[in-house]
Every structure is written in structure tokens, then in C-alpha cells.
Design goal:
This protein is mostly helical. The protein contains five helices and no strands. The model has no long low-confidence stretch (mean pLDDT 81).
Length: 195
């Protein structure tokens, strides 16, 4: 026998034939609709487990300005719960911008009131005093988001490297799973970050 004489290893490339529901008997057509059962649904293909290291889709944030306003008002003394990266960096961005504006206003007021001879950073000092508590609170909530203790904030008092360690922790992405501090504000759609 030469090549091409027999067909071997035949594979079907199309979809498998589907079973159809049997036709109802003519006497069953007149039966009430409640007595007629719907055809059985096709079995679902098993879904593959998520890939190792994959995360669920992120929930859209409320915007950096909204996070900033909430941090200095509603969440002023809130040291519990979790804060996503967008909340922390939104607060930090507008905190720095507020410092810049307060400093420029201090310069203008010093020029107007004393002719520029005496510089008095009153607005900058007032903003510094106002933002101490919410700054610590949002950092503690950000540490909670990574399932770390809020007391780790005290590492900022270690000279030279303390702020760097906290800075690195603030860059790490949120953990998608719930922890003792609550559900993830970034990956859990049911989580309310400001409850």
C-alpha cells in the first residue's frame, strides 16, 4: 500500500453537533404553557482559573481633587480603613500645590504690608498646622491598604532613610484581597472607601 490509500487520524474541525430538543407530540401542543418545559440548556465550558499573579480589574477612582477634598474634610481624623494609591497621591499633589500658593500669597502680603523687608509666612504656617492630621491619616490608610500596621508611620522619624522607606511603601500597588482593615478600595466594586 502506498501513501494516500487509507484515511487515518481524522479530526473534526467544526463545532460538535448539538443535541436538539425532541419535537412535542401533536397532543402536547394544546397543553397549557406551564406544562411545557423549556429545553435543557447546553453545558457551560469550564472557565480557566485566573493566571498566577493576575489581579481583578480596577474600579475607577473618584479623581485626585475629590480625594484631596475628602482627606481634608470628611476623612480628616479617619485612621481606619484603606486608601488606594490614587487617593494618597491625589492628596499629596494638591497638598504641595497648596503650599506653593500659600507661600506665594505670603510673599505678596509681605511686600504689600511691609514693603518686602519682613517676610512672615503666616499662611504657609497655618496650612502646615492644618494638614498635619490628614497627612498622617491618609498615609496610615495607605499602609493599611498593603496589610501593614499604621504604626509603621513612625519609621518616618528615623533620620535620613525613614521617609524613603515610607515613600517606597506609598508606591506599591493595592492588594486585591480583603484584609483586617476592610475590602480593597481599588479592586472590590462593593467597597466604599469613604463609608
Amino acid at each position: 500500500m502506498g501513501l494516500g490509500d487509507e484515511a487515518r487520524d481524522i479530526y473534526s474541525l467544526g463545532p460538535a453537533p448539538q443535541a436538539t430538543a425532541p419535537e412535542p407530540a401533536p397532543s402536547a401542543v394544546s397543553a397549557p404553557a406551564a406544562a411545557v418545559q423549556a429545553p435543557l440548556s447546553q453545558p457551560q465550558a469550564p472557565t480557566a482559573p485566573p493566571a498566577y499573579g493576575s489581579k481583578p480589574p480596577a474600579v475607577p477612582g473618584d479623581g485626585v481633587w475629590t480625594y484631596f477634598i475628602r482627606s481634608i474634610t470628611k476623612n480628616y481624623f479617619r485612621f481606619t480603613g484603606r486608601a488606594r494609591r490614587q487617593e494618597y497621591w491625589g492628596y499629596t499633589l494638591f497638598n504641595v500645590l497648596t503650599y506653593v500658593v500659600a507661600f506665594m500669597l505670603d510673599v505678596i502680603l509681605s511686600v504689600i504690608l511691609s514693603g518686602g523687608d519682613d517676610f512672615a509666612p503666616w499662611l504657609t504656617l497655618l496650612w502646615f498646622l492644618y494638614q498635619i492630621i490628614p497627612s498622617i491619616a491618609v498615609t496610615v490608610r495607605r499602609l493599611h491598604d498593603q496589610d501593614l500596621s499604621g504604626w509603621l508611620y513612625l519609621i518616618t522619624f528615623v533620620p535620613y532613610i525613614g521617609w524613603l522607606v515610607i515613600f517606597v511603601f506609598m508606591l506599591i500597588d493595592s492588594r486585591p484581597e480583603s484584609n483586617v482593615h476592610g475590602p480593597s478600595p481599588k479592586y472590590d466594586p462593593a467597597a466604599t472607601a469613604f463609608a
